[in-house]
Amino acid sequence: MRVIAGSLKGRQLKAPRWQGLRPTSDRLRETLFNVLAGRVAGARVLDGYAGTGAIGIEAISRGARAVVFLEDDTRACALIAENLARCGIEDSYVIIRATAARGADQLREDPAFVPFDVILLDPPYARLPAEVLRNMDTLLVPDGVVVLEHARRQAAPAAEGRLFRTRELTSGDSVLSFYACRP
Fold it and tell me: Which of 127, 139, 124 has its CA nearest to residue 179?
């Protein structure tokens, strides 16, 4: 695994040494960020189900102003911190130990909460896409985007709350579903 583009291009990221964590492939990350091209620089980004931190680190490399990494596995939180250190990233991020669903509640309740421009969700494929998207609209700026990576065998909903799907891209067994928010 490596950082694809931006100021940290080519930096190697450490992969997990345990079963159960499925990092997004370099190819799919490249596709994701090609689609998001103009939205990342200066953005506040939520990397939900962060795993290795590769998606959030890619966002930082491409100019994101701030990234919040949400992850419930303690080993993965340590791996994210290690990958951030390997890249020399010392600020502009926060790691929160929580699932994206629980973390969403924590974030909204924080008096300093500021909505996100981009929300990137890469849950375990066993999670239901509609469940993962629930309440994400409450964390998003009005013109923001939510991207859900999910298994091709599990269709993502056309809408969830105020979110509605605008695009889908398929790569192998994975699908990226893009959502915007109704006013």
Answer: 139
Distance CA 147, CA 43 (A): 14
Q: Tokens for 38, please give them.
A: 């103009």
- Gyration radius of the chain over CA positions: 15
- Return the number of other C-beta atoms located less than 10 Å from residue 42's C-beta: 10
User: What is the 8-class DSSP label of residue 136?
Assistant: G
Which residues, in sequence order, are CB contacts of 25 under 8 Å at separation 6+? 171, 172, 174
| CA-wise closest residue to 44 among 118, 121, 137 | 118
Bridge pairing between strands 116-121 and 44-48:
parallel
User: Helix or strand or coil: residue 64?
Assistant: coil
CB 51 within 8 A of CB 16: yes
Q: Which residues contact 112 (CB under 8 A, 6 or more apart)?
A: none
**Residue matched to tokens 């959502």:** 179
Q: Give every CB contact of residue 147 below 8 A, 6+ residues apart in sequence.
A: 32, 36, 118, 119, 120, 121, 176, 177, 178, 179
User: Residue 110's CB: how many other CB atoms inside 10 A?
Assistant: 9
Q: Model confidence over 124-182: pLDDT tens digits?
A: 888 899 999 999 999 999 999 999 999 999 999 999 999 999 999 999 889 999 999 98
CA–CA distance, 120 with 49 (Å, rounded to integer): 9
pTM attached to this predicted model: 0.93
